Amino acid sequence: MARAAVLRRHNGGVPLALFDLDNTLADRATAFAKWAEIFVTRFALEPEATPWLLSLDGDGITPRPVLLRGAIDEFDLDTTVEELIDWYEESYIECFQRESASIDAVLALRDAGWKVAVVTNGPTEQQMAKLRQTELEEVVDAIVVSEACGVSKPDAGIFREAARRCDSELAGWMIGDSPSADIVGAARCGLRTIWMSRGRLWPELSGNLVFDVLKFGAD
Ligand SMILES: [Mg+2]
């Protein structure tokens, strides 16, 4: 039986699946690591600069001006934060690749009758550029980006908006890698949750059921 069908059975027949974007449908960690290598090459830095950048990035949590200012200071670069931000925004997006496995998974869910939406926190322009670069934009029913929506995960409003755009009740599943934004936020709305652990231990923010990993397959 297709895994999408198994999930639907557990879902009580409400076919709504909401997905986080970064490090859930799209491999943001690999994209940033690739960008860090490009950065190191551009400025002819020592190899140790790469783990330094990954550490300061904090899985994307660190604001970009802070990251890039930190790099300028650490490596004594002859450039400005403004110049680096302009270059970053373009070069970083190009580090994302077509997400074939995610596309196949989303299409399998939709073939099984599910509505599928992306619910992502971040700047609209950047998140939409990622969705185009990964070719996910065309395969989902709806996309809700926090900046455009006016509310961010874990606020219930962004999950409600995703359901509304899918013409669904707010009932179903949320799949994401952030314990607080994705999992706790969605669980508070009554959604079932799947946490993409990415090798981490659950921080025990709540008593939600946790799956170690779940890959939707097309089988
Ligand atoms: Mg994420």
E-strand count? 5
Distance between the termini: 8 Å
**Could you name the CATH homologous superfamily of the largest domain?**
HAD superfamily/HAD-like
N-to-C series of helices and strands: HEHHHHHEHEHHEHE
From the helix content, strand content and strand pairing, which structural class follows?
alpha/beta
Supply Rg. Answer: 18 Å
Averaged pLDDT, please?
89
CATH class call of the largest domain: Alpha Beta
Helix content: 40-55%
Task: Indicate the proportion of strand residues.
Answer: 5-15%
Molecular shape: elongated
Please name the CATH topology of the largest domain.
Rossmann fold
Low-confidence stretches: 211-219
| Strand arrangement, major sheet | 3-2-1-4-5
How many domain regions? 2
Which key terms come to mind for this protein?
single chain; 219 residues; alpha/beta; Rossmann fold; 5-stranded parallel β-sheet; 5 strands; elongated; disordered C terminus; binds magnesium ion
What would your notes on this structure say?
The chain is an alpha/beta fold. The protein has two domains: 3-27 and 98-195, Rossmann fold, CATH 3.40.50; 29-93, no CATH class. The chain is 47% helix and 10% strand. Helix 7 (124-133) links the parallel strand 2 and strand 3. Mean pLDDT is 89; it is low at 211-219. The structure holds magnesium ion (MG).
